[in-house]
């Protein structure tokens, strides 16, 4: 159930797919790093347009936060 429409041709014949994507991000220390992630995207069946919706933004944000946590261990070496 979704009410997504293609932003290009207006068709409601759209499908959600997951693609492998890489995100370039910068951590609080200013170091650039890449995140490999699964990105949910929408594909129009009619005109083959592929675009990112709010799910993609949320997935990117989650992947970024997750990567930050992994890069800055909260455990302190005793
Ligand atoms: Zn379309």
Description:
- Helix content is 23%, strand content 36%.
- The chain has 78 residues and is an alpha+beta fold.
- It has one domain (14-71).
- The protein has a three-stranded antiparallel beta sheet, covered by helices on one side.
- Strand 2 (32-44) and strand 3 (50-51) form a beta hairpin.
- The longest helix has 18 residues, at 54-71.
- The radius of gyration is 17 Å and the shape is elongated.
- The mean pLDDT is 90.
- It binds zinc ion (ZN).
- Zinc ion is lined by residues 6, 8-9, 11, 44, 46-47, 49.
The low-pLDDT segments are none
- Termini distance? 51 Å
Number of domains: 1
Helix-strand sequence:
EEEH
Strand arrangement across the biggest beta sheet = 1-2-3
